Amino acid sequence: MTGIGEAPADLLSALEAEPSPESVEDMIAVQTLSLGRRTVAVVTLTRPAQHNALNLAGWQRLTTVFSALGDDPAVRVVIVRGAGGRAFGAGADISEFPAERLGTAAADRYNSAIAAALQGVQSVPFPVIAMIAGLAVGGGCELATACDVRLASTGSRFGIPIGRLGVTLGLTETRAVAGLIGAANLKYLVYSGALATADQALAWGLVQKVVDPGELVAETARLAWNIAESSEVTVRATKQVTALAADPAVTDQHTLIRALHAQAYGGEDLREGIDAFLAGRAPKFTDGRTPSHGRS
Q1: Pairing of strands 87-89, 38-45
Q2: Contact residues for 99 (Cβ-Cβ < 8 A; gap 6+)
Q3: How many CA atoms within 13 Å lie on the side-chain side of 133?
Q4: Would you write out the chain's pLDDT as a tens digit for each of its 296 residues?
Q5: Which of 21, 78, 79, 114 could form a disulfide linkage to 41, CB 3.0–4.6 angstroms apart?
Q6: In angstroms, rounded to a whole number, what is the distance separating the alpha carbons of residues 199 and 207?
Q7: Beta pairing, strands 24-25 & 28-35
Q8: SS (H, E, C) the chain
Q9: All domains in the chain, ordered by first residue
Q10: Are residues 232 and 288 in contact, defined by beta-carbon separation less than 8 angstroms?
């Protein structure tokens, strides 16, 4: 079977460089790369001097960004990363807590902004890859777990050391992290304040692959391009059915699962995939979409 080729040079270049200043708004940079009929988006947290800690405006901007990307029919995959090479994200900006997070009303507003951002990442219909180099701590760790797949470089560190602050985890954040590493490991991270190594994160299932720092860009680009070149019917259905599978009450007779099944086995991508496999060539899939009501 013909495999997916190497990632385009434009994608590699975008991931090797820092985002341009004009692409940044409220500490979030957005770059969209049109690669033929496919668009790959790169979202960068851009406060390297503060280890890419996000303030309230940054969390709100993430929600806006992912809402717009989710509505773009050309987008196939999004990569989230941190600027500067030292951190993916160090969580929330503690310096603004006195003004923005003290008192129940202020905390509700701030916590709702974080939850909305994480839910925005989770709800887009295409895969989101976290490219992690350095620290993924607090809200940065939570943001990474909201993504579909996480790739990390050796030397990366993960943790939620909030016990020294006196804040609490929201339900959205707790579900995102505990859903990957289990409740006991989440409690350990909070209670101990420890930062897990990349190897420990890999063993827990927090990340899917750990590579040398010099290989992280190429590995991330390769995965993103593999997704972009794969059947969009398969890719989007995988995200949707995986989300449904978390509910033990869902069966194979669920309306969405039946609709996805019908689309796949009655659609053109399967025919093209079979023909390409038998001919020993790369498939050329259509721009088919999974049912719109099935956004996970």
Answers
A1: unpaired
A2: 106
A3: 22
A4: 344 568 889 999 999 999 999 999 999 999 999 988 789 999 999 999 999 999 999 999 999 999 999 999 999 999 999 999 999 999 888 888 888 888 899 889 999 999 999 999 999 999 999 999 999 999 999 999 999 999 999 999 999 999 988 999 999 999 999 999 999 999 999 999 999 999 999 999 999 999 999 999 999 999 999 999 998 888 888 888 888 887 788 888 888 888 888 888 888 888 888 888 888 898 888 765 545 433 33
A5: 78
A6: 9
A7: antiparallel
A8: CCCCCCCCHHHHHHHHCCCCHHHEECCEEEEEEEECCEEEEEEEECCHHHCCCECHHHHHHHHHHHHHHHCCCCEEEEEEEECCCCEEECCECHHHHHHHCCCHHHHHHHHHHHHHHHHHHHHCCCCEEEEECCEEECHHHHHHHHCCEEEEECCCEEECCHHHCCCCCCHHHHHHHHHHHCHHHHHHHHHHCCCEEHHHHHHHCCCCEEECHHHHHHHHHHHHHHHHHCCHHHHHHHHHHHHHHCCCCCCCCCHHHHHHHHHHHCCHHHHHHHHHHHHCCCCCCCCCCCCHHHCC
A9: 9-229 (3.90.226.10), 232-294 (1.10.12)
A10: yes
Residue 129 in tokens: 């890859």
The Cα–Cα gap between 189 and 206 comes to: 12
Lookup: tokens for 86: 């030292």
